[in-house]
Design goal:
222 residues; elongated
Amino acid sequence: MTREQGLDGPAPGERPTPAGRRNKQGIRIDPEVEAKHEPRRTVISALVEHEPGVLAEASGLFSRRQFNIESLTVGPTDDEDRARITLVVEEPDPGIDQIKKQLRKLIPVIAVRELEPDAMRRELALVKVNAERPDQVAAVADMYDAKTVDSSPETATFEITGARQKIEAAIETFSQFGIREIARTGTTALARGTDDTAAPAPAESTANEANNTPYTQPADDD
């Protein structure tokens, strides 16, 4: 009596094995899902209703979620009824996505957008330094296009405007004279060219005005 052969195929030792470990329930975990995401720095712009408490509401959201916010600025826009919040965050991609989703859930928020790396980013800093060597201090100020806003026999205070890297380089160079105080605004940013930084679509804006109610962008699922 002859034994019937099974189906053709590779030997047990030659069969491909799925990648990824199994959890306690025996379910195999996709390595891509489990992979560690490295944090990256990016700028998020949010257009909001210009009303009391909107900044507190946004900052409270970040505090509860423990997002790594490097800087947060808010200011008016060309529309007196709207303000712009600019966030600099350093988070892995899933965290950045969550920040945008959670911002969109806030009622005063009109639109949210992550800006491209080539967006125009500026920061302002006031740096007060010792002025025992005024000629050398002035030379450093000229190097970074710093504007003198106050001076005395003991100190000089400079206003520096530019990208974050320029501000930090200027502070490091001024430190050789002894820095007494620093105040920085944080980053503000706009998209380049005719590209909107963060704005509702025209159809959404028209519908919002017709209904005379604040526009709320639909919230994404967590």
